[in-house]
Known about the structure:
The chain has an 8-stranded parallel sheet. The longest helix is centred in the C-terminal third of the chain and has 32 residues, at about 325-355. Mean pLDDT is about 95; it is low at about 350-355. The chain has one domain: TIM Barrel (Alpha-Beta Barrel), CATH 3.20.20.150. Helix 4 (about 80-85) crosses helix 5 (about 90-100), helix 8 runs parallel beside helix 9 and helix 9 (about 245-250) crosses helix 13. By secondary structure, it is of the alpha/beta class. The chain has helices spanning about 15, 20-25, 45-60, 80-85, 90-100, 135-155, 170-180, 200-210, 245-250, 280, 290-305, 315-320, 325-355, and strands at about 5, 30-35, 65, 105-110, 160-165, 185-190, 215, 220-225, 230-235, 260, 270-275. The protein is about 45% helix and about 15% strand.
Amino acid sequence: xxxxxxxxxxxxxxxxxxxxxxxxxxxxxxxxxxxxxxxxxxxxxxxxxxxxxxxxxxxxxxxxxxxxxxxxxxxxxxxxxxxxxxxxxxxxxxxxxxxxxxxxxxxxxxxxxxxxxxxxxxxxxxxxxxxxxxxxxxxxxxxxxxxxxxxxxxxxxxxxxxxxxxxxxxxxxxxxxxxxxxxxxxxxxxxxxxxxxxxxxxxxxxxxxxxxxxxxxxxxxxxxxxxxxxxxxxxxxxxxxxxxxxxxxxxxxxxxxxxxxxxxxxxxxxxxxxxxxxxxxxxxxxxxxxxxxxxxxxxxxxxxxxxxxxxxxxxxxxxxxxxxxxxxxxxxxxxxxxxxxxxxxxxxxxxxxxxxx
Length: 357
């Protein structure tokens, strides 16, 4: 499995552009870049610019993945740049799919909605899942309808739209969405840190999405108890509570999926898991008590480490990220991922040898 990086959290990517990003990734020994939007390759979808980025990646021996916009129609007003591409939002997304395919990019990121960090003090209402102007089931219905409208375009170009296990959607809902619209045009981008926000055990979540896994966002998490239930914070791979041998084993059958490290910007992106909120619980009809218990166990494990001084405290997790922390997050995660992959490979080799004997 290749170890790459997501462009959105890489320091300097936005200022310096796609070619710089690709060259910087290669300098760091990374094996690919997951651009969250094809507009990072060319803001106007200029064919020459998109092809130039694809050629640069090929010359450097890097995997190149890109993305389009959100596919929940209730979230699309937040992306006017996409609408401007085609006159309406769907036309803009179609242009992005076509432009990517022309450059040989057929695995495209997407997600449904957002987390409104400026509304964090509003609890569950910071998640678009809990908007009061439109119910979540209605958002899912509208999203499915929109994806069905894109399906013929995706089929015509041999492209997959790989929807992320983003902070607003459960893996259960996402699997149902893929199966309804069709796995020939939809896949899943598994984010190891987001699934806990929906009350899911990351290893169990990885196994659920495994049949449709086509891309990934990789990072570790700290879980801490709060008056609302739990809070999730982002950490480099190996610094948190995720079971990486089990997680990578769950992803292991997909050797062609790049492990794209998604880091941090200015903070560790605290998000609440509102276990004590009855409406939060009712808003998760697939919630598994066993998986919630596992998250509580992981939080207790992390807090014990923090009490011993072996992990960041709650105050330290909530503090602004230190200068250089964003790049350090990526570099350290890559080192640890390769160590875990090497160990996993050795274990699998030993198992094969024993079986042959």
